[in-house]
């Protein structure tokens, strides 16, 4: 399942990527272009723009919720998304590119010493070269998911 989100939903875009979903964050107001992209790439539109959601013929989810946990909760429930731990952190939250595994030695200069010593399983974005590792982010994600009451969905 792939998504395209309208400009009000930048944070939600990043979160969907963290969870491993292919997510385009469409910042322009050109809605015919957005629709074209949605159709061509078979993406579900997620938006806070009610008129847009009602107008499009393709699948769309309208979010009236303003805060992130509520938005995330609604999307997961509405689309019956399955959150799989092994898919989390498989995608760059900034570029939406699939991350590639990278050897520990190669990230030595790019991560804090402590992280280098204590973490395993580094991944790198092929586009922006950001380095990701699961250890540090896990706790934050867990806490955020707990707040949404979605922890049971994820375990
Ligand atoms: Zn990136």
Largest sheet: 4 strands, parallel
CATH architecture field of the largest domain? 3-Layer(aba) Sandwich
Name the beta content range. Answer: 5-15%
**Count the helices. How many?**
8
Instruction: Tell how many strands the DSSP assignment holds.
Output: 7
Query: What sort of overall outline do the alpha carbons produce when their principal axes are compared?
Result: globular
Q: How many domains in all?
A: 2
The overall pLDDT average reads: 88
Please state how the strands of the largest beta sheet are arranged side by side. Answer: 2-1-3-4
What is the N-to-C order of secondary-structure elements (H for helix, E for strand)? Answer: EHEHEHEHEHHEEHH
Classify the oligomer.
Answer: single chain
Notes on the structure:
The protein is 42% helix and 14% strand. The chain is an alpha/beta fold and 155 residues long. It has two domains: 2-85, Rossmann fold (3-Layer(aba) Sandwich); 89-154, no CATH class. The strands form two sheets. Strands 2-1-3-4 form a four-stranded parallel beta sheet, with helices on both faces. It has a three-stranded antiparallel beta sheet with strand order 5-6-7, with no helix packed on it. Bound molecules: zinc ion (ZN). Residues 92, 94-95, 97, 125, 127-128, 130 line the site of zinc ion.
Helix-strand layout with pairing:
Layout: E1 2-5, H1 10-18, E2 23-25, H2 31-40, E3 43-47, H3 50-55, E4 60-62, H4 68-78, E5 100-101, H5 104-107, H6 113-118, E6 123-124, E7 131-132, H7 134-148, H8 151-154
């Amino acid at each position: 399942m792939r998504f395209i989100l309208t400009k009000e939903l930048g944070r939600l875009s990043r979160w969907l990527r963290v969870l491993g979903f292919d997510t385009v964050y469409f910042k322009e107001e050109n809605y015919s272009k957005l629709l074209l992209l949605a159709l061509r790439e078979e993406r579900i539109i997620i938006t806070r723009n009610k008129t847009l959601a009602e107008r499009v013929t393709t699948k769309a989810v309208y979010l009236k919720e303003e805060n992130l946990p509520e938005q995330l909760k609604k999307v997961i429930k509405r689309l019956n998304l399955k959150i799989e731990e092994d898919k989390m952190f498989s995608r760059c939250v900034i570029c939406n590119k699939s991350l590639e595994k990278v050897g520990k030695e190669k990230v030595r200069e790019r991560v804090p010493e402590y992280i280098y010593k204590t973490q395993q399983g580094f991944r790198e974005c092929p586009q922006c070269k950001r380095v990701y590792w699961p250890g540090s982010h896990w706790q934050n994600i867990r806490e955020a998911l707990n707040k949404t009451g979605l922890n049971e969905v994820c375990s």
